[in-house]
Amino acid sequence: MATVNGVPASLAQLTALALTNYGHFTTLRVEDGAVRGLSLHLDRLVRDCSAVFGTELDLERVRGYVREAAGGRPGPSTVRVTVFDPALDITRPAEGADPHVLVTTRPAGTLFPPPLRVTARPYRRDAAGVKHVALFGQLALRRAARLAGFDDVLFTEPGGTEPGGVGPGDLVSEGCTWNVGFVDGDGQVVWPQAEVLSGVTMRLLREARPGALARPVHTAELPAMRAVFATNAAIGVRAVREVDGLRFPDDDPVLTELRDAYLAVPAERL
């Protein structure tokens, strides 16, 4: 199901988005007409609309579109809200701005799916603080990871030498479409400091479990970590079992505490 401004999306509108690939989005998990972190998702849409189009977004209109699209569907839904301008001309992208709201829905998967096996690769997304639709770079690396036998990819940035040299190794930043977190040897949750998209689920967990550390995390530190996990709205808190052959337990009690803290976050009505 796909609607633009509350009515079925036209071929011309979807073609315009496919050809220009300019816009931004957020993805929500809707259960019984409510969303954990709804206010944060809406704030993201407002902030990114200003950054991408230089204009304001009518949030009540957006809520109405999402409410109508998700209403009546059995079970939880994954709803993606994409803001784009179907009239944007690729040769004159600065002329005007009339953002439209594309809403797509699909059945949601199970929260807390099986653990991931990932490989680390150097990459930084363009405009990392904006959840924009230009996904080629990160999906190309996810595809390469899958072809190499992994489930997904973990991004790093230059920050020293590789383990075995004189420096601490590269900086860990984020996953392909998720934030990464760690549990250190003392059982402390650690969020890596880097140029990343601040995910809604990560922000909810940081509020639910205050006192977590936020600091640079280098690849040379990974063997000393007790557990690794991924977070986003679709998966909640998902264990990472392996990073390039380095194994981590997926039953660490801190991961259970994080999942319980996430489930305890009150959902907001659409």
What does the model show?
The chain is an alpha+beta fold and 270 residues long. It has 6 helices and 16 strands. It has helices at residues 11-20, 38-53, 59-70, 136-147, 200-208, 253-263, and strands at residues 2-4, 7-8, 23-30, 34-36, 77-84, 100-107, 116-122, 152-157, 171-175, 179-183, 189-192, 213-215, 227-232, 236-243, 246-247, 267-269. The strands form 3 sheets. Strands 7, 8, 9, 10, 11, 12, 13, 14 and 15 form a 9-stranded mixed β-sheet that branches. The protein has a 5-stranded antiparallel β-sheet with strand order 2-1-6-5-3, with helices on one face. The longest helix is centred in the N-terminal third of the chain and has 16 residues, at 38-53. It is globular. The two termini are 18 Å apart. 35% of the residues are buried.
Would you summarize the structure shown here?
The protein has 270 residues and is an alpha+beta fold.
